[in-house]
Amino acid sequence: MCRMFGMAATTAVSPRALLHDAPRSLRALSREHPDGWGIASRGDDWLVERSTTCADLCARFGAVADRPATLVIAHIRKATVGPVALANTHPFVRGRYAFAHNGTLDTRPLAIAPAHAAAITGDTDSERLFAYLLSCLDAGSLDRGAASLAGLGSASFLLSDGNRLYAHRLGRALFTLHRPGSALVASEPLTDEPWHELSEGALVEVTPAAAALAA
Fold first, then answer.
1. Helix (H, G, I), strand (E, B) or coil at 106
2. Which of 1, 3, 100, 120 is deepest in the core (most CB within 10 A)?
3. Where are the beta strands (DSSP E) in 52-181?
4. Per-residue CA distances from 203 to 45, 49, 157, 159, 206 (Å)
């Protein structure tokens, strides 16, 4: 199992408190998920920092976590499929898309377009899932792609197209929280605020403008 965090904000803000400083921050949780970390933050383009070091032991993590952004996808890994390696460390970014996954999935039935299959560099089911979802987006249907994952394992994920942030729950919990000007999603509540647990099978757009909307 892994842990992940996403943020969508109306103006660029730093996610450091939830990623690094809070008692249940991703840095604190990385003691149980020590096999690497990654943060993709969006300004004019995606800036991606990844490491195979435990976030709690990595001085660079705090500096990257402090970077202001309007969109963030962050992940700490506990390796299941694929060894500890930078190529297997989330988030994965392809063009305007960024992606992180929590769970273990049988990807053999997934029809991945050749161009997206050729871009896979690591050994994880997560990167193959990302390639499959990109294939579905090419066909114009993220929701049908997500629905097709039922029965294949756990496929809770965060996906952004550079403008919007989507969260999908399948087999691993996800929670959302709305604050003035921002919306957050995480694998577990990171603060004592009233986080809302997504229902199993839900695919939602995480937006700071209103409550999470079904995609």
1. coil
2. 100
3. 69-76, 92-94, 97-102, 156-160, 165-168, 175-179
4. 25, 26, 9, 10, 10
Q: Is the pLDDT of residue 60 over 80?
A: yes
Q: Estimate the share of the chain in helix, then strand, then coil, as percent rounded to the nearest 5.
A: 20, 30, 45
Closest CA to 162 of 137, 198, 190: 137
Strand residues in the chain grouped as ranges (E):
3-13, 37-42, 46-51, 69-76, 92-94, 97-102, 156-160, 165-168, 175-179, 182-186, 196-197, 203-206, 213-214
What pLDDT sits at residue 211? 40
User: How many other CB atoms are there within 10 angstroms of residue 139's CB atom?
Assistant: 12
Q: Where are the domains of the chain?
A: 3-214
Q: Quickly count: other Cβ atoms within 10 Å of residue 27's Cβ.
A: 23
48: tokens are 């991606």
The CATH class of the 3-214 domain is alpha beta
Which amino acid would we find at residue 74? A
* Strand 175-179 relative to strand 182-186, pairing: antiparallel
